[in-house]
Amino acid sequence: MRTALCLLLFSLGLGAVAKDNASDYARIPEALSRNAHALIRTHHQDMERISEDLLKTTVVKAVTVLSNPGREHAVLHLPYDKNTKVLKISGKVFDAQGRVIRTLKKKDFSDYSAFQDFIFFSDQRILHYQPGASTYPFTVEYSYTIQTKGLIHIDLWTPVEDYNLAVEQATLRVATPGHLPLDFRMKNYEFAYETIENGNNTIHQWEIKDFQALRKVPYAPHYLSIFPYLSVAPLHYRYDKYSETVSDWKSYGKWVGQLLEGKQELPKATQSRMQALTDSLPDERSKVKAIYQYMQKKTRYVCITEGIGGYQPMSAGEVDLYGYGDCKALSNYTQALLASINIPSFYTEIGADSRRIRHPDFASADQTNHVILTVPLEQDTIWLECTNPYNPFAYVGEALANRYALAVTPQGGALITMPSYKAEDNHLDYKLELKLSPNGDASAQLTSTAKGLRFEDLHFLTTGTSQQQKDYLLSHLPIKNLSINNFSISEKGDKDAQATLAVEFNAGQYAHPSGNRLFLPLNTVSPVTLKINNTETRAFDLNFKIPGTDTGHFVYEIPEGFEVEFFPSEILIENDYLSFRSNCELSGNKLSYRRSFTLKQNQIPKASFTDFVETLEKIRNQDNPKAILKKI
After folding, report:
1. Which of 106, 132, 358, 412 is nearest to 245 (CA)?
2. Distance from CA of residue 146 to its chain's centroid?
3. 407 to each of 361, 372, 415, 632, how far by Cα in Å?
4. 412-417 and 76-80 as β-strands: parallel, antiparallel, unpaired?
5. Which of helix, strand or coil describes residue 615?
6. Cα separation of 428 and 549, whole Å?
7. How far is CA 116 from CA 112, 120, 125, in A?
8. What is this structure's pTM?
9. Which residue(s) pair with 557 in the sheet?
10. One-character DSSP codes across 233-297
11. Which of 10, 139, 529, 559 could cross-link 94 (Cys pair, CB 3.0–4.6 Å)?
12. pLDDT tens digits, 72-113
């Protein structure tokens, strides 16, 4: 009876799942309004795989906006292109009593190009609607059907799209022919799940109900570490003339390998140029570096998202001719350049920034969004980020470190582990030599050196003009009455890159005069700025991007006619996650202050939240002490 009932419900179609009684939208469950700026009343997504390369999707979604911050959840932003057709679209807007105040037809939706300034070519367009209602609560209901040609992945299903958003009911239904099976992974929630055999089709359905809003807090873990989501992957890919059965990452790599076939031919002149460039170099590493830097100077990054171009690179010959390409094209081009001097490398897919391969045992195209190049040498492995003309050779930054990547080998895909950085690898070190005048003014030399993942804290400055760099320093150096006389930025190293910023400056009243004394702050340059409210009840672990150490060595030359009346004693504060130590010494007319602050790991268990915050506050209170200078 249960199966028959489910089949009946499926046969009714999704049009029946929107609330029929308008007053239903007027009734807001109290439990779901807690911490919520908006409430998803219904969100039903019905997907039918019609054939190998054709997918039909119908969506009905209704959102009640409870307050102004929730307005963004009432906006429809529907992309389409030549392979994704919008078959129909409509909507309604309801007032607080659940009465229809506007009915939407296709002409009411704005239609514009999704072309952005960083995209070289895209055929993607957007259908967009933003309700004008300003009295809360109000509800907007959308219904649309799209048809997609070419099937590689099904978009990640995230029924709870954000913090401060509750969900009354959401379902995902996928119907697929029996000979075209799928696989899936559920995370962070036990979705109600069932399957039904219906003729030649297998119907999968997942449901979530009465999910209360999660309050947004600072330093929460990544969205996909907290919120319910479902990853669904077809086991048979079909796009244009390319097809592959994908059951794991190895077979996924074979699919990518198909897209690369015939894309690496280079002109004979370019091959000869690469040989001439590298013939005199002593080893493979130096040859790889020369080719990488040649590619950086010759090419520029553009984004291409049109059709199969979103998955398949331009040919190496086209990149060589035109001098541009996206991450796929530039990595493929660099691979071809290396192949011309008989150095093998692997085209490598990776999830960059917040995207990452989260399931080593489950292959799906939505876990990657970027391509780099892996170069295995006899004594080392080098990873090349081919889209950034400023990236040091072999340097792996925060967007790519500490995660899996997929190397596309002749045998198929192979999961590899990217370089991992520990807290002791990431340093930002300051050295200040400052001469103080009797009125508290100062002239100084400040040197900052960044290593590991902290390298990027200074590296970005190298991409700007001298004036842009100076403007940034004037607005970001935490020194009052600042006047910069001179500055320089330099870099050295490859995979162990470090950046150094040197600044000569003057600062009026660096030390504050009061009567016959000067009050000298000992750490204006690098005090701990991290601050967390201890009054909250912590629901999640604390999550920081980069663990590491900041150090400072500040030497102050005391002006003639003054003596040091007071300087702080040695401080040591430490727990399992934080460490701070400082000490001050006087030698002749120079006062030396040293301090170090270490965040030992990037994830702090919520059970340790109170201890962490209390320790942090103790550190903050000790991290910019003052010395007192007295006129003799």
Report:
1. 412
2. 29
3. 15, 9, 6, 70
4. unpaired
5. helix
6. 7
7. 11, 8, 11
8. 0.90
9. 435, 590
10. EESEEEETTEEEE-SSHHHHHHHHHHHHTT-----HHHHHHHHHHHTT-SSHHHHHHHHHHHHHH
11. 139
12. 999 999 999 888 999 999 999 999 999 999 999 999 999 988
Between the alpha carbon of residue 205 and those of residues 13, 235, 501, 597, the distances in Å are 13, 17, 57, 51
Tokens 């690496």 appear where? 264
Tell me which amino acid residue 499 is: A
Residue type for position 455: F
Strand order in the sheet with 76-80: 76-80, 125-129, 110-113
Neighbouring CB atoms inside 10 A of 389's CB total: 14
The CA-CA-CA angle for residues 148, 115, 232, to 5°, reads 35
Q: At what angle do helices 284-298 and 327-339 cross, to 10 degrees?
A: 140
DSSP 364-382: -GGG--EEEEEEE-SS-EE
pLDDT in tens, 321-377: 999 999 999 999 999 999 999 999 999 999 999 999 999 999 999 999 999 999 999
* Residues 491/392, Cβ–Cβ less than 8 Å: yes
DSSP conformation letters of 29-65: -HHHHTT-SEEEEEEEEEEEEEETTEEEEEEEEEEEE
Q: What six digits make up the tokens of 426?
A: 């990431």
Residue 36 neighbours by CB under 8 Å, 6+ apart: 66, 70, 164, 165, 166, 212, 213
Residue matched to tokens 């259908």: 127
In total, the chain counts a number of residues equal to: 632
Q: Report percent pLDDT > 90 for the chain.
A: 85
* End-to-end CA separation in angstroms for the chain: 98
Task: For residue 116, name the pLDDT band (cuts at 50, 70, 90).
Answer: low
What is the reported pLDDT for 121?
55
Nearest-10 crossing angle of helices 268-278, 284-298: 130
The larger pLDDT score, comparing residue 49 to residue 19, is at 49
Query: What letters, b where the CB count within 10 A reaches 16 and e where it falls short, cover 110-144?
Result: eeeebeeeebbebbbbbbebebebeeebbbbbbbb
In the numeric block, the tokens 């933003």 are attached to 130
Residue 586 burial (10 A CB sphere; 0-12, 13-18, 19+): middle
Per the rule left: phi > 0, alpha: psi between -120 and 50, beta: everything else, 374 is: beta
CB atoms within 10 A of CB 323: 12
Around Cβ 16, how many Cβ atoms within 10 Å?
10
Contact 228, 187 (CB under 8 A): yes
Q: Which of 348, 339, 311, 337 is nearest to 326 (CA)?
A: 311
Please name the amino acid found at residue 431. Answer: K
Q: Which of 459, 395, 436 is nearest to 556 (CA)?
A: 436
Distance CA 24, CA 420 (A): 52
In DSSP terms, 14 is beta-bridged to: none
Q: Is the peptide bond between 137 and the residue preceding it cis, with omega within 30 degrees of 0?
A: yes
**205, two tokens:** 């359905």
Can you tell me which residue has the tokens 């390998």? 257
Q: What burial class does residue 354 get, using C-beta atoms within 10 Å of its C-beta: 0-12 exposed, 13-18 middle, 19+ buried?
A: exposed
Q: pLDDT tens across 152-161, in order?
A: 889 999 999 9
